[in-house]
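Lecture notes, continued. The same structure-token format from the folding unit now serves as the input rather than the output. Read the line below as a description of shape only.
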């Protein structure tokens, strides 16, 4: 029997400059088999622009958090332009309803995390929390079987706190993983 739980795949923003990103993603998704795939966008240069604005204007972490979430939504639409066969969805229910139309969805982080605000265990609104931890949160809420972080770096595994210190994942990721344990794998899609 095929495991029909979602595999969440976070596409790191560092990959957005790859001219063949769409083809690379399709080749990678083909390795996942029949499990439904939920794509989560990384922040990349769009999130960096928010960091820059925060540094100049001292917007604060709360305002910057929501601007960065909106940047992720822009990146979700960018990924959909590369993968038009994937459905852009806003929440878990829509994801499950979409299975008869497509087994590949892209999460729009803006409505998803607005809805998550009502939950007490949501992610903190801080620069230590990036799309790495946010994708883990989405995977946990989706009841996903695994989270795959597509990045531009190699990481063979080990201590997630050290991975956070080394910049492989965000600084809060190890804490998030303790709250929402799930199988996580890092894949260098650039290699």
């Amino acid at each position: 029997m095929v495991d029909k739980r979602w595999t969440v795949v976070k596409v790191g923003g560092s990959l957005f400059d790859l001219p063949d990103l769409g083809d690379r993603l399709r080749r990678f998704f083909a390795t996942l088999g029949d499990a439904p795939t939920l794509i989560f966008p990384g922040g990349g240069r769009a999130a960096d622009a928010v960091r820059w604005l925060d540094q100049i204007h001292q917007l604060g972490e709360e305002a910057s958090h929501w601007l960065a979430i909106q940047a992720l939504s822009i990146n979700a639409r960018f990924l959909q332009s590369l993968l038009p066969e994937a459905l852009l969805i806003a929440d878990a229910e829509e994801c499950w309803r979409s299975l008869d139309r497509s087994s590949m969805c892209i999460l729009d982080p803006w409505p998803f995390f607005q809805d998550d605000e009502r939950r007490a265990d949501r992610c903190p609104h801080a620069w230590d929390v990036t799309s790495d931890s946010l994708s883990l949160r989405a995977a946990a809420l989706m009841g996903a079987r695994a989270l795959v972080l597509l990045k531009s770096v190699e990481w063979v595994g080990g201590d997630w706190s050290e991975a956070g210190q080394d910049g492989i994942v965000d600084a809060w990721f190890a804490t998030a993983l303790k709250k929402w344990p799930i199988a996580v794998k890092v894949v260098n899609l650039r290699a």
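Point for the exam: The helical segments are 21-30, 44-57, 61-82, 92-97, 109-116, 131-142, 160-165, 173-179.
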